[in-house]
Amino acid sequence: MSQEKYDFGLIGLGVMGKNFILNVADHGFSALGYDLDQGKVEGLIEEAGNDKVSATTDADTFLAGLKRPRKIMLLVPAGKPVDAVIESLRPKLDEGDIIIDGGNSFYTDTDRRFESLAKDKIHFFGAGVSGGAKGARVGPSIMPGGNKEAYEHIRPIFEAASAKVNGEPCVAHLGNGSAGNYVKMVHNGIEYGLMQLISEVYDIMKHGLRMSNVEMKATFEAWNQAELGSFLTEITADILGVPDDLETGALVDAILDKAKQKGTGKWTSQNAMDLGVPIPTVDAAVRMREISSFKSMRVEAAKLYTLPMAERADLSTDELKAALYTSFIVTYAQGLHQLSEASKEYNYDLNLEVIAKIWRGGCIIRAKFLEEIRKAYSFNKSLQHLLLNEQIAELVKTNLPHLAKVCAEGMRLGLPVSALAASLNYFNAFKAERLPLNLIQAQRDYFGSHTYERLDRPGIFHTEWEA
Ligand SMILES: NC(=O)C1=CN([C@@H]2O[C@H](COP(=O)(O)OP(=O)(O)OC[C@H]3O[C@@H](n4cnc5c(N)ncnc54)[C@H](OP(=O)(O)O)[C@@H]3O)[C@@H](O)[C@H]2O)C=CC1
Ligand SMILES: O=C(CO)[C@H](O)[C@H](O)COP(=O)(O)O
């Protein structure tokens, strides 16, 4: 290792860390990695093949090798490993040094670490990184939150390493404390929703329209060229074309239908419930992963409930496209509504236009449609809900009948369309001037004297309902 001081330090040379440090070095910054595993340290040095990058398993060498204030990014598993790394570094750091947690940490953990490190005048950033291994290597979307002045020290590195859309970096300081980790959590909630919607449309194509993988691949490819253009549409087309490397047929057909989860989608749903913000498409996506995990029960139930399946869905792929597009819009709208309410509750002062802007490239939920979202929040900085924007409303109105028909056809065929239906029902409830919840208020007052308000006059009322 050269004795030169490095611009940037990175701890955790796994999938994300190794790729991100190489990316940083590609942009002219010298970077020093640290990992406990000698193999990973040697692997990085070999892959980098230049003196802009080095790595070590020795913490003192690592800390001594960094320019002041030290800028140290952690890409280690969320939870205890993050605390363990912070506590091991802490006694050796100086005032003004900066620790950046790039992992999917829970936002309250970030607040705790932020406040604790502030006592030693060490800056702490929660900076969610999205884009997977490839994104980390060539340009992810980065969602940093923390002290705004200290951010200036890391801004040049993050702006250089992030994805660019129209020359604009997919990174911005998002707010104080845990704002960055919170935004990344909701990003992942939206990710869960979009993935579930795509999987339901795939199910209808496969079982309702009996389309082959080749036909489905061509359809997703075509969709990806137009308004549905997005990373997840693109990779779905790719996946449908990959042959099984162990047997004949397509690999996707050989994959066990149990979806795992690390927790960010569930956290999004749990927190939305705490805030009282409805995000039913994300909830449905989490629920479907849970249902999928009970495979043996599903196999037993499938034998017990063998029902005749309707012959074929009465649908065109254009109708499916319109349904998917509408439900995508509704899913982003739910996530952005959650961010808007969380911003007030946690004093993040989030700028939704900026968030839409930095999600346009690099991240898993990047999509052409994010430019329309950015425009909506640019046009009205205090837009309360994406579905209240007139341009977005026109898009939804045009496509909504197709979503309703796709849900109806899916249900007629006995196919689970949880996320599609959740999106449709959310929209129908959201745009209803009058909901039947007046009856619920009456029931609550009937059995528990919980009182109610009236439409025609102010005040709190109670009725003795029993004659
Ligand atoms: N993989 C992905 O697509 C994405 C991941 N993330 C998030 O990024 C974070 C890192 O993920 P990922 O790179 O996939 O994880 P990996 O498990 O691939 O890498 C984590 C690395 O951290 C090392 N490590 C763990 N503890 C310590 C420690 N105490 N000191 C030094 N090194 C340590 C691990 O070493 P060892 O293996 O030897 O324990 C490993 O090299 C997670 O929070 C994840 O949720 C975010 C976006 C996308
Ligand atoms: O953060 C990510 C992308 O943005 C990860 O890929 C995501 O955590 C995957 O989540 P899960 O394993 O729960 O599906």
From TrEMBL:
What region holds the 6-phosphogluconate dehydrogenase C-terminal domain? 180-466
Q: Kindly state which keywords UniProt assigns to this record, in alphabetical order.
A: Gluconate utilization, NADP, Oxidoreductase, Pentose shunt
- Pfam families, sorted: 6PGD, NAD_binding_2
Q: In which pathway does it act?
A: Carbohydrate degradation; pentose phosphate pathway; D-ribulose 5-phosphate from D-glucose 6-phosphate (oxidative stage): step 3/3
Please give the start and end residues of each transmembrane region.
Answer: none
**InterPro entries to which the protein is assigned, alphabetical:** 6-PGluconate_DH-like_C_sf, 6PGD_dom2, 6PGDH_C, 6PGDH_Gnd/GntZ, 6PGDH_NADP-bd, NAD(P)-bd_dom_sf, Pgluconate_DH
The EC number on file is 1.1.1.44
Q: Which domain of life is it from?
A: Bacteria
Top-rank EC class of the record's enzyme: oxidoreductase
Q: Which reaction does it catalyse?
A: 6-phospho-D-gluconate + NADP(+) = D-ribulose 5-phosphate + CO2 + NADPH
Q: Which PANTHER family match?
A: 6-PHOSPHOGLUCONATE DEHYDROGENASE
Per UniProt, subunit arrangement is: Homodimer.
Its family remark reads: Belongs to the 6-phosphogluconate dehydrogenase family.
Q: What does this protein do?
A: Catalyzes the oxidative decarboxylation of 6-phosphogluconate to ribulose 5-phosphate and CO(2), with concomitant reduction of NADP to NADPH.
> What name is this protein filed under?
6-phosphogluconate dehydrogenase, decarboxylating
Gene name linked to the record: gndA
